From TrEMBL:
It is found in: Cell membrane. It is an enzyme of class 2 (transferase). It comes from the Bacteria. The keyword Transmembrane helix applies. The lineage of its organism: Bacteria, Pseudomonadati, Pseudomonadota, Alphaproteobacteria, Hyphomicrobiales. GO terms for biological process: lipoprotein biosynthetic process. The chain crosses the membrane at residues 23-45, 65-85, 105-123, 135-153, 185-205, 212-229, 249-268. Pfam families: LGT (PF01790). This is Phosphatidylglycerol--prolipoprotein diacylglyceryl transferase.
Length: 280
């Protein structure tokens, strides 16, 4: 086989430009992910059949929660990147921390920020933390999928060098002369499409009636998908491989597999809450 002869698509990083204002694909991915996730979440909480009764969160509460989770994702994602991936650079250039338009967001940091937002909002509004976490993670793959597409469009986070057995390998603009795996698309498929499909099927099968089951499944499946993708993704140059073939993305995902598995077991053993069983 020979490498794909189609050149890497050179797409303008600015998606929309109105006068001096410009919206980049990177930012548009976050905006669309949050909006589409909010729409899907409203569909889920309006279906009493999925919950075995009224959903534990009202639509108006979901609307308020959007701001909380948006801040959690942005603050957590940027903080995670600063601490996990490039602390030395940001210690010397602290002003660069605020330059979000230049890229540099950590999923693991964004996830922790999202967890904090879920817990604080749930406690403040007397909502089940696990159920709110279920709703949030059921829609999260939408944003992950769009984010990975934005990474591909920007030509960043490319894959490792590929051999001739990978005919779809591409030469990325800043990735050197070697054809590489389009690992951003692998991640979009695994962490976005596949994860969304699995969780959607689980939701339709009644998983929301067991608080924490969707949350735990999201954490575990995402982590496994991320670990698999890391075998094709080039490590960040400032970090490289940490131990043997292990990357930072792999190491940060291992605790997620464990935490997700624990949540799944707890949710399954706890079963369906009694007030839901009586309403079925």
């Amino acid at each position: 086989m020979s490498f794909l002869t189609i050149a890497f698509p050179e797409i303008d990083p600015v998606a929309i430009s109105i006068g001096p204002f410009a919206i980049r694909w990177y930012a548009l991915a976050y905006i669309c992910g949050i909006v589409l996730g909010w729409i899907y979440a409203r569909v889920l909480i309006r279906s009493e059949k999925l919950w075995g009764g009224p959903a534990p969160i009202a639509p108006v509460q979901l609307d308020d929660f959007i701001l909380w989770v948006t801040l959690g994702i942005i603050i957590g994602g940027r903080t995670g990147y600063v601490l996990f991936y490039n602390p030395a650079f940001f210690i010397q250039n602290p002003a660069a921390i605020l330059k979000l338009w230049e890229g540099g967001m950590s999923f693991h940091g964004g996830f922790l920020g999202c967890v904090a937002a879920v817990m604080l909002f749930a406690i403040k509004n007397n909502i089940s933390i696990l159920s709110l976490g279920d709703i949030t993670t059921a829609v999260a793959p939408i944003g992950i999928f769009l984010g990975r597409l934005a990474n591909f469009i920007k030509g960043e986070l490319w894959g490792r060098p590929a051999d001739a057995s990978v005919p779809w390998a591409m030469v990325f603009p800043d990735g050197g002369p070697l054809p590489r795996h389009p690992s951003q698309l692998y991640e979009a498929g695994l962490e976005g499409i596949l994860l969304f499909a699995v969780l959607a099927v689980m939701v339709r099968m009644g998983a929301l009636k067991r608080p924490g089951l969707i949350l735990g499944s999201f954490i575990a499946i995402y982590a496994l998908a991320r670990i698999a993708s890391e075998f094709f993704r080039e490590p960040d140059p400032q970090l490289g491989f940490l131990w043997g073939e292990l990357t930072m993305g792999m190491l940060l995902s291992v605790p997620m597999v464990i935490a997700g598995g624990i949540l799944i077991m707890v949710a399954w053993r706890r079963g369906t809450p009694q007030h839901i069983e009586k309403s079925i």
